[in-house]
Design goal:
CATH topology of the largest domain: Spore Coat Polysaccharide Biosynthesis Protein SpsA, Chain A
Distance between the termini: 45 Å
CATH class of the largest domain: Alpha Beta
Structural class: alpha/beta
Number of strands: 10
CATH superfamily of the largest domain: Spore Coat Polysaccharide Biosynthesis Protein SpsA, Chain A
Strand order of the largest sheet: 3-2-1-4-8-6-9
Length: 309
């Protein structure tokens, strides 16, 4: 009997989201496995209490032969968890999803097909929102949960590269390349990881058919949460630019740009608000992103912008 020889390691970093993890794991078990491939699933729990263990045990109890590995990472921060995944993965290629996501049946098939056909070192796919309760009109109209999508095969810059839906070749981690722990508590570690791999000559492409859905709970639909995320994202973006050294005075440069853009945004917001246009919320998010850029120099650490930790 022929045994598939190509191993794919699918990695999930988790932090106090047992229900989300359960849904993510079930979607991986229900997906189609690419021809000629085997899959191992690695769960790295970054919560001190190890609350994901019970979820993993329930899957292993139902199927003791399941290729599912559970690990705890004691060092706090998403960078440490992601690095533990890379250190533990034995597959020829590795894929990441988050613990609040679940994959569509053809997800892995499409990723590996795109990786092979394009000769890329990393392939990224869409993350579309799955609202757990009916979203408000302003949330839908503002499209603040919509992310950029591209034609399959499009080369990606580092600014559009994230770990929420990605497949990596082992070339990406050659020489011990890992996620920077400098961004362990703030997010942005994935953008920096991919920026530095591009500098090493790695190729990043998009696969629009490899879809995962991201659960959006009610608390993430509140304006305060959305605006806070925008502020943190702007702040982290400047820190990344400073780390990459592409500007001589990055904090001053982006603070000035942020100030000028914020003034423009305020004018646009006022006009949209007077008209009763829910697009003013999208502009409000941009304003908070600009304010984050202005404040970046004075906030070197803080809560994880992605909301996991």
């Amino acid at each position: 009997m022929h045994t598939p020889s190509r191993l794919i390691s699918v990695c999930i970093c988790t932090y106090q989201r047992p229900d989300g993890l359960r849904k993510a794991l079930q979607s991986l078990l229900d997906m189609q496995t690419p021809s000629g491939c085997r899959v191992e699933i690695i769960v790295v729990d970054n919560a001190p209490a190890g609350c994901a263990a019970a979820v993993v045990d329930s899957f292993l109890s139902a199927d003791p032969l399941l290729h599912l590995k559970y690990l705890q990472e004691p060092s706090p921060g998403v960078s440490h968890a992601r690095n533990r995944c890379l250190d533990s993965a034995t597959g020829e290629v590795m894929a990441f999803i988050d613990d609040d996501e679940f994959v569509e049946p053809q997800w892995l098939v499409e990723l590996i097909r795109c990786l092979d056909s394009t000769g890329a070192d990393a392939v990224f796919g869409p993350v579309v929102p799955f609202f757990e309760v009916s979203p408000t009109a302003w949330l839908v109209a503002s499209r603040v949960n919509d992310r950029m999508r591209f034609a399959t095969g499009t080369a990606l810059p580092w600014r559009d590269a994230r770990t929420g839906n990605v497949m990596l070749s082992r070339r990406m981690i050659e020489g011990g390349h890992r996620f920077s722990t400098e961004f362990a508590r703030t997010g942005g570690e994935d953008s920096l990881f991919f920026a530095t791999t591009i500098q090493r000559g790695c190729k990043l492409v998009w696969c629009d058919e490899a879809v995962v859905q991201e659960s959006v709970p009610a608390e993430r639909m509140a304006r305060a949460w959305v605006l806070h995320r925008a502020f943190m994202g702007g702040r982290t973006y400047v820190r990344l630019e400073a780390r990459l050294g592409q500007h001589r005075w990055p904090y001053a440069y982006f603070a000035l740009r942020g100030l000028l853009s914020a003034l423009v945004s305020m004018v646009v917001i006022a006009a949209l608000y007077v008209r009763g246009d829910d697009q003013h919320v999208r502009q409000l998010c941009r304003l908070y992103g600009h304010l984050g850029k202005i404040a970046a120099r004075f906030y070197s650490d803080g809560p994880y912008a992605g909301g996991q930790q």
